UniProtKB/TrEMBL annotation:
CDD domains reported for this sequence: GAPDH_I_C (cd18126), GAPDH_I_N (cd05214)
Alphabetized UniProt keyword annotations: Oxidoreductase
Lineage start: Bacteria, Pseudomonadati, Pseudomonadota, Gammaproteobacteria, Oceanospirillales
Chain coiled-coil ranges: none
Protein origin, superkingdom: Bacteria
Record PROSITE patterns: GAPDH (PS00071)
Protein name from the UniProt record: Glyceraldehyde-3-phosphate dehydrogenase
Amino acid sequence: MTNTWLQTLSHVESLIPILGKLGREQEIKVALAGQPLMSDSVTALMTIFDQYPEIDLTKVLQVLMDLQSSLVQNTTVDLESLLVENDVEALIAQSASSLKQVPVVLYGFGRIGRLLARRMCALGHTTPGMKLAAIVVRKAGDKDLKKRASLLKFDSVHGTYDGVVKSDEEESTLTINGQAVKVIYASHPSEVDYESYGIRDALLVDNTGMWRDHDGLSAHLQRPGIDRVVLTAPGKQMKNIVFGVNHNDVELDDRIISAASCTTNAITPILSVLEEQYGIESGHVETVHAYTNDQNLIDNVHKGDRRGRAAALNMVMTETGAAKAVSKAIPSLEGKLSGSAIRVPVINVSIAVLSLRLEKEVTVEQINALLESASQTAELSGQIGFSAEADAVSSDFIGSPQAGVLDSLSTKVRGNQATLYVWYDNEFGYSCQVVRLMEQLVQQSLAVESKETESSVAA
C-alpha cells in the first residue's frame, strides 16, 4: 500500500462519523455525482472516491464539518456542487425550516416491500424527510410477526440484512435499527384508520399489485391519514414515472403515481440517452427475466397458461408491457418499440436485449462512450451502470443499486442497427428507484408546506 492510499483511508475513516451525524441529527443525505455517501462502510466510500481522484478529501472533510455546524437540515446535498461553490450559507437559505418527517406506509410486505424497508432503514443510509411508520399485511397465522421479522432479516437472494430487527407481539411492531414500525393487519384498505395509529399525511406505497388503476388505488386515499400513493407496478389512469427520466413531470396534485416496472426502469434511461443523441426509428425489447412468485414451481393450473409450468425447470415464453410503457416516459418513442419476455430458471437478476434501428450510423465505441459518460453524471448515475468486465454473469449484479447496467463488451453495431444488453437486479435495483421517487414526493410536499408556513408567518 502506498502513502496516498493510507492517507485516503485516513480521510475516509474521518468522514464516517460526520456522515452518520449529518444523517441522524440533521436528516442530510450527502451525494457525489448522484451516488449517496453512506456512513456504514469504509470500503464503499473508498470505492466511490477512487472514481474521483481529483477531489481533495481534506476539503471534503472541512466542508462537511461546516455543514454539520450549520442550520442546514432535511435535504440532499450534492458534494461536488458544494465543493465548487464552497457556500454553506447559501445552502442554509434553501434548507427546510423544520425536521418534520413524512410517515411512510408499506401496503404489502413481499419481495419489494421488504427491500424497500431494508433500503429505507439501512445503516448509514438517509432518506431526508421521511420515515417508515407502518406495514400493512394480511395475518398469516399466530407467528406472523416473528415470521415477518425473519423474512426481513434473512433473504436467500440478498443475504442477511446488516441491521438489528426485533419483533414485539404485544405492541405489534417490528423495530428495525431502533426504529419502531407498526404492523397493521388488514385484508382491504377500507379496514384501516391510520390516524388511530398516530399516522397523518402519509405516503403509502402499494406493493401488492392487487389494484393497478386510479379507481382501485383511490381506496387508500379515502382512508384517514393517507395523503399520496405510489404503486410499485405499471399503472393505468396515472403517471408512470421512471426516476431520472420523467420524474420532473410529477406535480403536487398527482396523488396517485406509478413507479412503472423493473424492466421499464432498466431500459428507459438508456433509451432516453440514445434517443436524444442519435434518434430511434424502431426497436424490439426482449427481456430474459428471472422467474417470479406469480409462476408455479411445479406444473399446475394458472391463468397465464405458460406461467403454469414449472418455473425452475423451464424457459417460459410470456409477455411484457415494458417496451410500450417506455413511451409514457419518452413520448417520442410512442409506437416505435415492441417487446416480449422469457422467464428463465434464475431467482434474481434479468437482462434486457435492446435491438434498435437508429436514425444515424454509429460505432460500438461511440455508443459505449456515450453511455459510460451518462453513467457518471449526477442526473443518471443511479439509473445507468456501466460494466466492462469480461467475466460478468448475472449473479454479479445482485444488489446493484442502478436501474440497469450496460454490458459494454456485448454491444453490437452494424450501420444504424444496434444491439445492447442491459443487466438489472429486478428486485433491489427497482426498489432503489422507488425510494428515489418517494424521496422526491416527500421533498416536494415539504417544500410547499415550508413556503406556506413562511407566508403565514410573514402575514
